[in-house]
Amino acid sequence: MSQDPNLFWFGCILWLVSVLVIFHLVYSHPPAKDAVSQKQVHPIKYAYVINTDEEKEIAQLRQECARLRQKLQQQSQKLREDFQHNTFYQLETLLTNYPTVCKVVQEHPDLPAKNILPLFKPLDKILDHWGYEAIGSPLAQVPYNPQLHQPDDRDITVGELVYIWFVGYQDPKLKYIISPAIVSRNLPEIPNSNKSYAVTLVNSLD
């Protein structure tokens, strides 16, 4: 049976058209997988931008913290220097005379204490300047208060009458005890000797 040549060429043309159509469909419309891959690129890129901005902000915060820390250190040093200078000016007379007084006392041990006491006046001035108040007065008899007093004997009870040997100091504004007063049941004994009263007190506490 003979084959019609027209049908043969018609089949070839139809096959060629089919191939072209399939080729066009494949390359003009990428698979869904490629589309998903393209969509995934944008969130990653966006996240990278966010991380970069956060790193810049963190770096700026670190620089600001370092600057503030340095500023606080400078202010602290300045306050310390100002305090030292102000304290020195308050005690200038005592500090400048103290070495000479020590030398004179060594060479003249019988020098009356009343000639030296005026040199300690700057101490009263600086205590007034700081607003500190004395706790009690020397040799005064007062009821024992453990918040204000430091006893020389542990068995002293609250409210018991004691004598103040050395005064203490407190800051009334802050309600803070800077140094408690040293107290005892008995008055210090002052022997008949050439020792000064202050030396006797100190030796009695040892």
Please characterize this protein's 3D structure:
The strands form 2 sheets. The chain has a 4-stranded mixed beta sheet with strand order 2-4-7-3, with no helix packed on it. Strands 1-5-6 form a 3-stranded antiparallel beta sheet. Among the domains are: 37-90; 131-205, no CATH class. Mean pLDDT is 77; it is low at 35-39 and 193-202. It has helices at residues 5-28, 32-90, 92-107, 121-130, 197-205; strands spanning 133-135, 141-143, 149-151, 161-166, 168-171, 176-179, 181-184. The longest helix has 59 residues, at 32-90. The protein is an alpha+beta fold. The protein has 5 helices and 7 strands, in the order H-H-H-H-E-E-E-E-E-E-E-H.
Outline:
The chain is of the alpha+beta class and 206 residues long.
Task: Record the SSE blueprint.
Blueprint: H1 5-28, H2 32-90, H3 92-107, H4 121-130, E1 133-135, E2 141-143, E3 149-151, E4 161-166, E5 168-171, E6 176-179, E7 181-184, H5 197-205
Parallel strand pairs: 3-7
Antiparallel strand pairs: 1-5, 2-4, 4-7, 5-6
Which stretches of 5+ consecutive residues score pLDDT under 50? 35-39, 193-202
Helix-strand sequence: HHHHEEEEEEEH
Structural class of the secondary elements? alpha+beta
Task: Specify Rg, calculated over alpha carbons.
Answer: 48 Å
Question: What is the total tally of β strands?
Answer: 7
C-alpha end-to-end distance: 143 Å
Tally of separate helices: 5
How much helix is in the residues?
55-70%
Mean pLDDT, as a whole number?
A: 77
- Provide the β-strand percentage band: 5-15%
Shape: elongated
Strands in their spatial order, largest beta sheet: 2-4-7-3
Q: What's the story with the biggest beta sheet?
A: 4 strands, mixed
